[in-house]
Amino acid sequence: MNYKNKNKGLRQVIPWNSYLQWLSRINFLRMKLTLLLVAAFSIGVQAAGRAQQVNLSVQNASIKETLLVLSKQIPYRFLYNEEQLRKAGNVTIAVSNKPLLEVLDQMLTEKQLGYKVHSHTITIVAKPKHPQINQNIQQEVEVSGTVKDSVGVLPGVSVLLKGTSGSGVTTNSNGQYRFKVPAGATLVFRSIGYASQEVAVNGRSVIDITLHAIESRLDEVVVVGYGTQKKGDLTGSISSLSADDLTKGGAVNNVAQAIQGRAAGVVVTQNSKAPGGSMSIRIRGSNSISSSNEPLYVIDGFPSNNGVNMNPDDIESMEILKDASATAIYGSRGANGVVMITTKRGKAGQGSLVYSGYTGSQTAINPYHLLDAQAYMHLANALYKEISGQEDIENGAYTPSQLNSTVNTDWVKEATRTAIVQNHNLQFTGGSEKTKVLGSVGYFDQEGILKTTDFKRISGRVNIDQTINDYIKVGASVFGQRENSNYQIYDGNILNSNVLYSVLTYDPSVPLYDADGNFGRPPGGIGDNPVANLLARQNDVQKDKMNGNMYLEIKPMEGLTARFDAGTELLHDQLGTYLSKDSYQGGINSGVASQSDYNLTHNLFDMYVTYNKDIDKHHVDVMGGYSYEKFTNNNKGVDVYGFSTDLYGYNNLGAAATISGVKSYKSENMLISFFGRVNYSFDNKYLFTATVRRDGSSRFGADHKWGTFPSGSFAWKMINESFMQDQHWFTDLKLRLGYGRTGNERIGNYASYGLMSNANYTYDGDSNSSGTYLNSSSPANSTLKWESTDQYNAGIDLAFLNDRIAVTMDAYYKKTNDLLVKRNLPYYTGYSSGQSNVGSVSNKGLEFAVSTKNLTGAFTWDTKLNLAMNRNKVLSLGGESDIFITSAKPMGTVSEEAYAIIREGEPLGSLFGYQYIGVIQQGESYTPQPNAKAGDPKFADVNGDGMVNSADRTIIGSAYPKLTYGITNMFAYKHFDLSIFIYGNLGNDVLNMTRMNLEWNRSAEALNRWTPENTNTDLPRNGFYYTEYGGYVNDHFVENASFLRLKNLTLGYTLPINSKVMRSLRVYAMAENLFTISGYSGWDPEVDTKGYENDALIKYSSNAQTANAGAGLDFNSYPSMRAFTFGVNVNF
Amino acid sequence: MNFLNIKLQVFHLGILFVICTACTKLEPELYSDLTTENAYSTESDIQAALTGTYANLGPYPGDAYLYYAGYLVMITDYATDMGFSTAAGNPTQLSNFTYDENNRYFKSNWQNMYQVIANANELIENTGAVAGMTDENKNLVLGQAHFLRALAYSDLTDGWGPVPLVTTVGNPAESYNVPLSPVERIDSLIQEDCLFAAEALPETWSSELGLARATKGAALTLLGKNYMRAHHYEQAKIYIDQVLALRDKGVYKLNPDFKNEWSESNKMDKGMIFGILHESALNGGEIANHFGPTDHPEVADRWQYYGVSLQFWRKFDDRDPRKKFFYYNYEGKAARDASTKNGFYYMVPEPGQTKVPNDTTKFLQNIATKKYSYEMINASYLDGRTIQVFRIADVILCKAEIENALVGPAAGLPYINEIRERAGAPLLGSSPDFPAPATKEEFIDALVDERGFELVFEYKRKADLVRLGKYEEICNAYLTARGLTPKVTEKLRYFPYPLDEANLHQEMAAANAQRLP
Which residues of B touch A1100 (CB under 8 A)? Predict the structure, then answer.
């Protein structure tokens, strides 16, 4: 196994054994490594890149062995010439907790050796033959000072006298040093992770120095599926985000918000602005029609569909695997991309305690001009007369007595408030060489701007890594969080419980409270006023998540590592609702309560073996593994009514007189996988990666349980070619090509079975009998199989001007076949829809990311920009007809109408409806609408058959943006830092269904409707609900929702503190949503009402198909808000 | 690391791989689900599937509002002179005959009817093979299944005429474009099903088995009415007479007070032949909510979603007590503003009256019936009220119609008068104000009114008007009285096929153009 070096000089390649060791250690230490590196190379909140403290005790050991011992304690590899080390002989040294460089100096100087520190390597070199300076003849002075970085003081920095290896001191814990040197000497300041600085003493006695962190992008280690890779060695398309990218100053409370606008090709939409509101992430467009398009989350190796809601302060780094060559290792769950989340872990050496927190206030931004009560009632009476047969009826809606009333309630004002948000995190890290610990707790509390709505999360995490011996390492993570929110239903339906529907449509002539102190309601009116909806009902949801997992790494021999992971994740969601006797329904039924529990148990076991080997210029990594996952869902719930008191809320269901419903359910699914990967590189120029995963899922039909998902990719590091050696422009140039096939298995657990539903029936009006009937959306389909996505990717990575400009561009094409579609079945079969594999969808796109260092020096200015374009197309529906996506009813008495369509040749998210061409004027006869009256809406006869009917509906908009972008600018000067984050969408449409009701009878716009006196208008006389022709879903309500948003502006100041108590202190002020440039007329252009339907819990049921193809609807969305926040970060 | 150790490690790893390779079981356990494979295995399964089929007559037990729990009224009593609404969208479109194929009431009722059929078909296909079940019990189940299927097909053909005739269990994914069957063909199935059911089912059920199941009388009623729809009055007479014979036997009985038939405490009146019962806790319906009055002092907090038109209500003679079986001319419960405890006054305007008499009066737009909120014993949000599908009063009026058709008006008159007498209304022929019809035609006019008065909001109006040949005439008169264009023609007797269904079915899509107003 020994490899004899044939070159006598310094090797170009690293000695294989230390390289192997390094590689395998990456597996062992990948968390730590990532942690250290990212920390070291970030302009972090924490004091990054503290000098490495090492322990060493060897007697008469070879230098090579000694370096080996050292290398286990630090994330650096040593490059050396074996011959040279052998010649230098053995060393004896005993130090503890000394800075690495000091130890190296101590060890190497006497051997006539030196070293050079690079970003991740330390090269041992022969000691330079400098002419000896005769120190005796120079006058000595005592120099002292403080060494800092951009954040705080730096302990453990080596301060050396240039030209005299070994002669030097290190800074103390306050970053201070004191050193006697010749007056004309030059000092060298060195610390790992920082650029060395040389300073001539020139007779000064105080020299304060600020070291600058080295950023070397290409040496960053990124986490990939079942392993890590150097960024420079990637062959696939991966966006990498560090802790700072995610949380610097921003009031983000989940992963999705943290990613928003930061990575090209990753579109994050906050479907709802509600506290804890639903978010969706689309990586490179939507592949699937009826399954989820949300990415897979892998948190420290543990796959999860529920990764989005975690405390961002626990995250060390995030990698977004975008193309199939990167995601295929996750096989059937890789098609939507994978978000790899690495949490922070403990590190050896000095402990650290970090507190970060902020508090702020949020206020609603209201774009609507609603009519006051008087105007509203007069309008209602006028509209009443617009109904056929009622033309002459006076006071049809409001009596003269009502018109004289002075009540005028502003429901938006009554229902909203200035809301407080606060966040606190405390985190400590520490440990010894063998045991490393991280502990953190976090608390987030956001009030909603809608009264009583809120969201709280408390989370805790302990990560432990323990090295047992040279061969075995174990670690464990325990994580738990609880979220509590008082939620309301914001899903666009017009249910009584939908607060937002009533906030905008409720009668302003109704007082908030009536004379008796009860919630106001129109006489004979049913349902609650908006404030009653908020105050008279409890709607509490509590979501608990517990995750415990453990790993064991065994290194039985050089180059071979076996890793085992086992863990379980428990999700427990509880809903409790209570309608008090003050509410409408609670009043009728003397209090109505319910409780529901939803549990998911996710067990995971996996194991994989990694082996790597170098032969000459060839390098090979091989990984193979197996994983078993089992998911068990169960839920239960009880509905009751009839309480003697409101005091119990939903907490004493046994006190109710009547049980009106009981339910429970359990289901399971299993996912079994075999996977493997080979990385091969030649001469660090040509890199090949091949992966394969074979997944078996219990969700599919008997004949199609197993699917195979291969990938292959290639990268050419042109920068390493000889012809690139003489140029000075490029510092990086790499081409990447990849292909892979991934799948999607996220369908119902028993989707291939013909399922039955429960019912009961009373044959005597008194007792109930249990019954079963066909579940109309689940016919048997034993041929149900995988949806598979083939993806091609080509990319280029460029860096110019000494890395001051770095550019990544990718182009991709994805085609998804055997689409899992809920296809419409004829109702006469007894079914309405069934899951089946039909047709295909393509996505193609371009992504562009650039980061620049515009200004360096005292005033720094960095910019990160990303742009992405995605084009989606439904290639085939396998001969099926169009599939329609239906809206909620905009009001109780009208039909749901199709507003989006899945049609061959068109993109998903195609809005669908009538073309509105204005108002029919007096005396105008419009042949396709023969019975229409003046003031009626006029629709285009699209098919030209002489009449307007459902066949004239056509595509009237596109919900997915043509271009998405995000721009971050960061400035720093002295102790100040400023960041400005802008993001936006271009070229997408939204169907504004909220406006449909407002413009008809509620907002000031309604006064501009067509009347015989006001004919120059495009608003019909009585809205769109009474028209005999066409429908309310038409392009009058389709709006361009392109926007540019100043999402976040943060100004920070790092106090120049240097005390024994505190290492650094940063304070910042932040404004969110300062402005949005958009022509959209609703609350917020960034909205996707149907996106909520991905949220199974709140909805009780979900419809991913609707969520996917039905983007671009705004109905009863939560108001958007502006926030001002003050925060502080302290590092002790 | 010696060689042996490496071998050992590799060996251990190998074993682990073998173990894991064995962990490839992918058959999930179904804990809470039955599948179509095992849901029809035992007698108990079959009984449960039968119960589920009944439940499909008013889907969503616990919150029933669809099909027979309410929605059906929109395609049977609206789009006639009876039901009226100004609620935006679908109700108004039906009231004004401006509907299109995208009307939710078309889709929802159509879908629910076929769900009953699909579940009945499963029973009919699976019951025979169940082991350990007596032939007698199989027959009882099959009788009910055949009846329920026939009822749903009867409702489908009332609404849409020719529809796909599905009588077996097939693969839904291979069932596109099943041809429309002519009504005559479907009538044959209804008749076969009803004959089977009438043969198989008892006259009454014991209370242990559940009183409100389909009976012989229910099957005979449906059969008789099916022949009547096709104007085959001779055959109809056979079966209607058999139902009346059951009355003579004491199986059925007209309640002396028509109102009591609707009392909530009287869920299974002897006047009911077939109905859908509710129990307010677990099997509640939104029946009182939808049909009950708004802002009424006695029956509070109801929605008056379904109400009869002013024009129809005015047809009642003031001397007919059934006119008072509505909520009208009352002072509302809610204080109209903070200065008073008094409510608004809700009145029925006189024809032509356009101005309210004072500043606190509101005109009623439509009038709520008391049928579904009379004598509430449970004012809960969801109620336990009964929906009657067939009742003996209907059959007596069928008898009147048959006798008029086969013999003449004099033969039919006693039956009309029996109903009027029970209601306390003046008998026809008793005074010049209430003349006896002299001709078959006059009799039909009287019958159209009488059926309306007696069976208002019992899902009969449109079928009655069409069968008696009065649909266009009555509906156009009604539109004219409301100041609208009389536009009802023979082509509107059938509704357009639901848009979603027509999107998947070429024949329906082609037919719809002819069915729109």
Answer: none
